[in-house]
Fold this sequence. Notes:
The protein is of the alpha+beta class. It is built from eleven helices and 33 strands.
Amino acid sequence: xxxxxxxxxxxxxxxxxxxxxxxxxxxxxxxxxxxxxxxxxxxxxxxxxxxxxxxxxxxxxxxxxxxxxxxxxxxxxxxxxxxxxxxxxxxxxxxxxxxxxxxxxxxxxxxxxxxxxxxxxxxxxxxxxxxxxxxxxxxxxxxxxxxxxxxxxxxxxxxxxxxxxxxxxxxxxxxxxxxxxxxxxxxxxxxxxxxxxxxxxxxxxxxxxxxxxxxxxxxxxxxxxxxxxxxxxxxxxxxxxxxxxxxxxxxxxxxxxxxxxxxxxxxxxxxxxxxxxxxxxxxxxxxxxxxxxxxxxxxxxxxxxxxxxxxxxxxxxxxxxxxxxxxxxxxxxxxxxxxxxxxxxxxxxxxxxxxxxxxxxxxxxxxxxxxxxxxxxxxxxxxxxxxxxxxxxxxxxxxxxxxxxxxxxxxxxxxxxxxxxxxxxxxxxxxxxxxxxxxxxxxxxxxxxxxxxxxxxxxxxxxxxxxxxxxxxxxxxxxxxxxxxxxxxxxxxxxxxxxxxxxxxxxxxxxxxxxxxxxxxxxxxxxxxxxxxxxxxxxxxxxxxxxxxxxxxxxxxxxxxxxxxxxxxxxxxxxxxxxxxxxxxxxxxxxxxxxxxxxxxxxxxxxxxxxxxxxxxxxxxxxxxxxxxxxxxxxxxxxxxxxx
Length: 644
């Protein structure tokens, strides 16, 4: 990196930060608040002029939203950040409330001279200490180390760069400065996992706490939140250490009901290192089974081919479409293809179209393109084997432009045009794939678990009743004992390393179909002292609660039946997602034909469903109308559900 000249004379920059951008179509206007913004540099300030010019050229476009919702979350976090359980309850309540509209605040009205001078100086001081300084171009430094903000977080002139730098150096010393960039990144990644992620509860999907953008000093206190907050903390540490970083994100995976955000180290124009502390290995940013759709990168500089720059701002679209600072980087992660799709029908006035993926319970747009000569044109679509639906979107409605299609990894396309004249019978065993679930590993952890009986409370001489030798179903498993046994005390001894992980334990005898009841026994306490994860959860008849012990080994749960009792069978439910087919639950199957068409409602009497009038080559969706939120689309091939 070249050495920047110092300003050895007094300079006074008086900049009227009132400007606008008008596209050729006048589709969007981005203004800064009209203010007189002064930055005075003297001989002693030693500010670098190129850095100043870069910031001034871009500050005028940056803004954030701030209002009652931000104030409510800031107050809750400041008051409760030392108690993760109490804070989570507070945040869960806050996300259900309605707030008045927030106000738009431009950075130029908040930033002060002292903050900017100190921030620029510290960014250069740290850069001059690191071994990898000469491997970084000026452009990389300006875009991924120098900026004082990352995304749309409210700013407050807090010296975050000094704060995060000091924390890391205090804990690790300065040896990182003598390493190469990759080694430094590895060290920071490992340290952040141990010191930030390990004590941070990630909530996503239906459990997302909906935390609004918050100032960095508030995010720094959080021990519960989403991948977005983790990425913000990770990026802060990286930039503070002069490791060039930003955010990359998937607005929605092609086969998962959510997206993801992570930090990314930018080495040069063609080389990056994904930096996600939710993954143990540097470079990993998702599960292997998750399929990419689009990947975008957050920039400090406006992207003149962004959606909002060329089409304007629309509040009925996902917020990233209204962000002028993102750019498409999908091709840096996966092979992509440009698509030209013939359309069945479209509005003559509509020129912009959108590409959507399914995210229960609706299709959600992840990219935009343009309609020309009766075709929808999209660029850089991931060849990951996902299903897409081209649509046109207006304020009041969304219209499908074609049938959904599978984009294969070789670039070929298969449309799911249901054949209503050729129907088949299908068997459904789940409404959500096990491959996407963390609960799958917990089911496997029951292997080796043992059920024991005893007539002494201390289980001094227990009798093994049954040992789990095969992976249980993630549904209720009925175990018929070889012969009737009689015990007062019965327990489940969990395998070491499992922390317990049993949702329900039911005991029966021949004389009654009712559950045998008794006093709950077992290992006391629970992980993070969570009330719903104690030994009592295994007997509360709630399949969604489970026993999860404080320690991984030497855990058990059981019952004192009050007297010696005949036992003929057990029924066990592993820690699970409740996404199988359950008896006495109501279900409805749909297929897609320019809208979801019902194939009928049924109440299940078994652990599977049968439908006999299903169009072939149809995209399907089974809904549990009784309980549950997780659902995915599927097709039916070779007598199996194929999940998308």
